[in-house]
């Protein structure tokens, strides 16, 4: 159901609205008319611009305006893209920027509208870096001026950054830096499920796991109070259910179920960031490490959470056992799991979505990479605000993420819980499989489960030659056998 709300109940957010189940073709022209804005910059997804008619349809609706367009923004909002947007705002007297894309697009545009009001026309990288406190990786709020250009964000992902007055960009050294102003959030956020439905499923699911990470790390923070805990207990199940419904809708090619799942996820993603923005409860090590894993190694935003969050939960269990019990109970309740550790439930969820779950799957394998990520994590904007481990602790988390189960043990659990008595002793067989010995397991499982388990057998049959590939096939096979149907 269409719903217009104030983005957040905070000072500085008056006149900053959001619309759920929006129609971008109707709501963008209406907002521009209300603002009297006719000089417009579109910053749009390359895929939407080249593979669909959606951007062309919008350009036709705005034919009476003076339009500029930038197609494409690099992952993690590189400074070069931020500067290109800001320079266009400054030189073309842009009155409103319209961002249609993922979190990299919204962050680039938020920073650009801040800097276009703060720095002289034609500013450079050195001017941007001069604003940043290099110890904390943060520019502002002092020294950053309030934006004077309107910004509309139409997100295609669940990273939820559009709700925040913080935004991050990546400098030439691969360091993610953060920029903030109390009025730095978009003027209008449009949650249009049909626009979001164009997002490739693996990108959407990755951004959804990122939103789960927001909830989980907030709850694990010692500063999380009773009101925030109640909010998370309500919101996290909705988000997990929405991701499940989206996944099921994709599998069934059911558009109605897919759009419903998207809408649920969009509401859930806002709820995930609310404790940080409204109650100032910061996220934890998974976010700090994930920021730098993304910028240093080029790992996609969201995939960083898929890989780092389970390992972080495992490492921080002694400090957050009570919160992790709440998280575990939510996963078990919503998804029918019977896990005993929050880290295992999170890892299983990632694998069931078919997402990468360890560093080798994103080509992060060397000790040199891990040390660079650890060093940069310690100067991340969040590192000074959370119980951040020292470098040895960060490296331990990264080592866990490098070696954590990628589907062999997990696959045995999935098969046992899903197919029950049909598999008999398969889990015990799989538990003892290592290296080349795994080649014969596929035939064993196929025979044990019949045609429903064939994809599982195929997957585990490949263990000896490629654990990662096998893990993905296991997840797919279990879905076919009825795990989420």
From TrEMBL:
Domain called Alcohol dehydrogenase iron-type/glycerol dehydrogenase GldA: residue spans: 18-193
Pfam families membership: ADH_Fe_C (PF25137), Fe-ADH (PF00465)
Keyword Oxidoreductase among UniProt keywords: yes
Keywords: Oxidoreductase
Domain of life: Eukaryota
Gene3D superfamilies on file: 3.40.50.1970, Dehydroquinate synthase-like - alpha domain
GO molecular function: alcohol dehydrogenase (NAD+) activity; metal ion binding
Protein name per UniProt: Phosphatidylethanolamine-binding family protein
Keyword match Ribonucleoprotein: no
Residue ranges occupied by any Fe-containing alcohol dehydrogenase-like C-terminal domain in the UniProt entry: 283-400
Gene Ontology CC: mitochondrion
């Amino acid at each position: 159901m269409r719903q217009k709300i104030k983005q957040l109940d905070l000072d500085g957010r008056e006149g900053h609205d959001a619309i759920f189940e929006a129609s971008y073709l109707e709501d963008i022209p209406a907002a521009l008319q209300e603002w009297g804005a006719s000089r417009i910059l579109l910053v749009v997804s390359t895929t939407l611009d080249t593979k669909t008619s959606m951007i062309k349809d919008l350009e036709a609706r705005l034919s009476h305006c003076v339009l500029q367009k930038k197609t494409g923004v690099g992952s993690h909002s590189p400074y070069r893209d931020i500067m290109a947007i800001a320079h266009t705002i400054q030189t073309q007297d842009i009155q409103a920027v319209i961002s249609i894309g993922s979190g990299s697009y919204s962050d680039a545009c938020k920073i650009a509208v801040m800097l276009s009001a703060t720095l002289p026309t034609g500013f450079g990288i050195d001017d941007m870096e001069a604003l940043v406190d290099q110890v904390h990786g943060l520019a502002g709020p002092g020294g950053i001026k309030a934006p004077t250009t309107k910004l509309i964000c139409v997100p295609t992902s669940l990273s939820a950054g559009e709700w925040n007055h913080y935004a991050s960009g990546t400098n030439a050294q691969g360091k993610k830096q953060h920029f903030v102003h109390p009025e730095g959030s978009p003027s209008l956020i449009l949650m249009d499920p049909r626009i979001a439905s164009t997002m490739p499923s693996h990108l959407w699911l990755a951004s959804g796991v990122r939103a789960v990470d927001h909830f989980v790390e907030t709850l694990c923070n010692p500063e999380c109070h009773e009101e925030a805990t109640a909010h998370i207990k309500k919101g996290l199940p909705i988000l997990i259910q929405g991701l499940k419904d989206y996944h099921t809708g994709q599998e069934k090619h059911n558009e109605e179920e897919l759009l419903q799942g998207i809408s649920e996820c969009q509401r859930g993603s806002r709820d995930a960031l609310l404790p940080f923005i409204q109650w100032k409860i910061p996220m934890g090590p998974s976010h700090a490490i994930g920021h730098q894993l993304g910028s240093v190694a080029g790992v996609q935003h969201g995939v960083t959470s898929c890989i780092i969050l389970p390992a972080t939960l495992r490492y921080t269990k002694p400090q957050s056992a009570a919160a992790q019990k709440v998280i575990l109970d939510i996963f078990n309740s919503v998804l029918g799991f019977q896990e005993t550790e929050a880290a295992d439930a999170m890892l299983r969820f990632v694998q069931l979505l078919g997402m990468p779950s360890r560093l080798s799957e994103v080509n992060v394998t060397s000790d040199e990479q891990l040390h660079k990520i650890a060093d940069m994590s310690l100067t991340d904007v969040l590192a000074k605000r959370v119980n951040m481990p020292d470098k040895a602790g960060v490296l331990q988390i990264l080592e866990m993420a490098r070696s954590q189960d990628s589907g062999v043990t997990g696959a045995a659990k999935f098969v046992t819980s899903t197919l029950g008595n049909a598999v008999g002793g398969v889990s015990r067989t799989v538990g003892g499989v290592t290296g080349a010995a795994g080649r014969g397991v596929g035939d064993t499982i196929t025979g044990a489960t019949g045609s429903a388990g064939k994809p599982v057998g195929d997957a585990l049959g490949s263990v000896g030659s490629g654990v990662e590939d096998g893990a993905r096939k296991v997840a797919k096979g279990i879905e076919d056998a009825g795990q989420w149907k």
